[in-house]
Design brief:
By secondary structure, the protein is mainly α. It has one domain (2-70). The chain contains one helix and two strands, in the order αββ. It has a two-stranded antiparallel ribbon with strand order 1-2. The chain crosses the membrane at residues 14-34. Keywords: Membrane, Transmembrane, Transmembrane helix.
């Protein structure tokens, strides 16, 4: 009877040990998956921020081009006039 009990305890201990090792392996895989998920989230956030920066740069470029065209129009409109310290004179 004692032999059967010892064998049962050994198989029980072996089963518990295998279960713990299996659980540890699953936990490591879950940790890797979670870290990859967090990395993916950070990359998506960086991509979103870069898209925002790109859109802002494009809008600033459009505004700069518009301002440049207005300055050229102003320059063309004031070209016939010569600036004097006292007044504008028609050339």
């Amino acid at each position: 009877m004692l032999c059967f009990r010892q064998r049962f305890l050994q198989t029980s201990n072996l089963f518990v040990l295998c279960s713990l090792l299996l659980a540890a392996g699953f936990m490591l895989q879950i940790k890797v998956l979670y870290n990859n998920y967090q990395k993916q989230l950070r990359l998506q956030e960086y991509k979103h921020r870069l898209n925002d920066v790109t859109e802002t740069i494009n809008s600033v470029e459009k505004l700069a081009n518009y301002t440049s065209s207005l300055m050229k129009k102003l320059e063309m409109a004031t070209k016939p006039y010569k600036f004097n310290k006292t007044r504008l004179k028609l050339v």
